[in-house]
Write a structure and sequence with these properties.
Layout: E1 2-8, E2 13-16, E3 20-22, E4 26-29, E5 32-35, E6 39-44, E7 68-72, H1 78-81, E8 98-106, E9 110-118, E10 121-132, H2 146-149, E11 155-159, E12 162-163, E13 170-171
Parallel strand pairs: 3-7
Antiparallel strand pairs: 1-6, 2-5, 4-5, 6-7, 8-9, 8-11, 9-10, 12-13
Length: about 180
């Protein structure tokens, strides 16, 4: 029986090796299980032994307890979740949405990113985004160097916001103003 829990980011601690067995998309480091790829975490129960069990004629130590196997799926689709009846609906990134994105290009003023996950939903396609130098941190914005903060291929967690390109005013969403 498999159950989905959450989205894992590469390098994220999933749990101790004493509680879980490593599966596809994971790796072991210092007796802990870590995510190797971006995707939903799956917990798989150990398989039940087939056939009748042997009767013991002598006392032996108890067999080790079978551990749950943690794995991460690279591709997620609605066809596997909904029984294969319909395709996956595309989710649009909205203002205040938390997103996971991969840095694709760096310039001195900004980092271009491809949005991969919106909230808890892995996207089929990629949305483009920008992280400007002034958006990296709240204080000492003039001392931020994009090259020291990001590298191409980095996975970044960010919050979507909208700023008017002409006035610089932040709005919760862009709306037409009444006459």
């Amino acid at each position: 029986m498999a159950q989905a829990t959450s989205i894992a980011v590469p390098g994220q601690l999933l749990g101790p090796l004493s509680e879980y067995q490593p599966g596809p998309g994971t790796h072991v480091h210092n007796s802990n299980l870590f995510a190797s790829i971006l995707g939903p975490v799956r917990k798989l129960n150990p398989p039940k032994p087939a056939g009748p069990q042997k009767r013991l004629t002598k006392i032996t130590p108890a067999a080790p307890v079978a551990l749950l196997t943690l794995s991460i799926e690279r591709n997620i689709s609605a066809s596997t979740q909904d029984g294969g009846s319909k395709g996956k609906a595309e989710i649009l990134p909205e203002v205040t949405s938390t997103v996971l994105c991969r840095v694709t290009r760096i310039t001195p003023r900004q980092a271009q990113v491809a949005i991969l996950v919106v909230g808890e939903t892995v996207l089929d396609g990629e949305w483009q985004g920008l992280i400007r130098v002034q958006d990296v941190r709240a204080t000492e914005k003039d001392k931020v160097k994009i090259f020291e903060s990001f590298r191409p291929g980095d996975i970044v967690r960010a919050v979507v916001e909208y700023k008017d390109p002409e006035t610089g005013v932040s709005e919760s969403r862009k709306v037409a103003k009444p006459f």
